[in-house]
Amino acid sequence: MYKLLLVTNRQAVCDAFAAVAWENMGFKVPRMVADGEAALASLKAYHADAIAISLPAEEDVELYRILMEQYPDLPVMEAPDKRGEVENRTLELRKLLIRLNADISNDSYTLSEQMMVVRHEYFRAMMDRRIPSGKDVERMLRLVRSKMDPKRPCVVAELKMPDSSDFLRGRWHYGPERLEMALRNIFGVEVAGLRILSCVLPGERILLLGCPMLHHETEAADNSMTGVIASHVQDCIDHVDEYLGIDLSIASMRILPALTAMASDKTI
Question: The whole model's pTM is what?
């Protein structure tokens, strides 16, 4: 059974978690602590598959900052104060933990590598506008331990494929999955406090995201941020042309008020 650490000083949250039939959900009864210091001590002394947090804002930010440094692959779950919501979040967590611990390949993958694969799947769903709300975006990014800050302005760029809309079914015969992997290796980078990612969506759309990272100061204002990303993208486009023989170009680039604007209930 999975082991969960609950960190909260709110009695309503403790009561909601105490009301859950944990064994029926594949978990041991959570270990409970009241603050970040006790949480870090518990993580050093006892194994935890995930951590659920409900703390005042400043304490939450500080604990999460330390978790990013010391436990970057430990899933962080929202800790609601109603039993039904706790059960929903736990089912979401269990699905992630099953995926992280699945033996689906002859190759040996570390937890960090498994988390990276799952994180990119969530990222692709977000870029495809399949995440229902901004709150869901924030919760999702925490759960999969993304470095991206969902509340700060970010840049989305779309790249144009060459020749025609059936390029992936024609000259690039390896398919969108192989192309996406190649582009991730070329475009993916952390620069000037920004995390830059790429994905290939249905309809042969190639999107790039440049987002400030948590607990990092960007070295550029909004307008300069687009310049940093545009310069990086153009350099990568040259590499794509040289190594893959694909002549990409920037079709559009725009600044969003926050990553949460990518939710399906938002108009952008």
Answer: 0.88
